[in-house]
Amino acid sequence: MTIDLDDEQDIWLERNGLALVVVAGVTAMNYFRLNINPPQSIVAGNNGVDHSQFVLVNTIGFLSSMTVMMIFTGGLHGLLGSRFIYWIVKVLMLIIIACMALTYTYVVIAATPPESSALLRRLTNLLP
Predict the structure, then answer these.
(1) How far apart are CA 114 and CA 66, in angstroms?
(2) In the chain, what is the straight-line distance between the N-terminal and C-terminal CA atoms, in Å?
(3) pTM
(4) What single string gives the DSSP state of each residue in 60-74?
(5) Along the 128 residues of the chain, how does pLDDT read in single tens digits?
(6) Which of 21, 16, 15, 9 shows the shortest CA–CA distance to 70?
């Protein structure tokens, strides 16, 4: 018996939906907390981290996390085609991970004194 691709994606969405909602909820909470109370060195603009970039990355991550939660808790994963939702959720999760990595990088750069790490200063120049 062969399993249709749509059936396989339906099974994947059903099995992993709860875990994705939990992950999206935890990341949304972290993004929200960092937007409400960012590190002082980012607000002050020290160490080369732009506050507006930090807020933009956090907002994109927060909205992506909220969208994943809305898809599963609002029942949208059952209304729309499973192939469409499957790829939307995968892309949103990649965006969430990328934004979390950028947020972490910004916080580490902001928390590190400029004189303590030449390598970190060189990496700062690679960021947008």
Answers:
(1) 35
(2) 50
(3) 0.76
(4) HHHHHHHHHHHHHHT
(5) 444 545 676 676 677 777 888 888 899 999 999 889 888 888 887 667 788 888 999 999 999 999 988 888 877 666 656 677 778 888 999 999 999 999 988 888 888 776 665 666 666 666 55
(6) 21
The structure tokens listed for 92 are: 């949103």
Q: Which two tokens stand for residue 19?
A: 């875990």
If one counts the domains in the chain, the total is: 1
Domain of residue 71 covers 5-124
Q: Render the burial of 5-31: b for 16+ CB within 10 Å, e for the rest.
A: eeeebbeebeeebeebbebbeebbebb
CA-based angle 126:57:12, to the nearest 5? Answer: 110
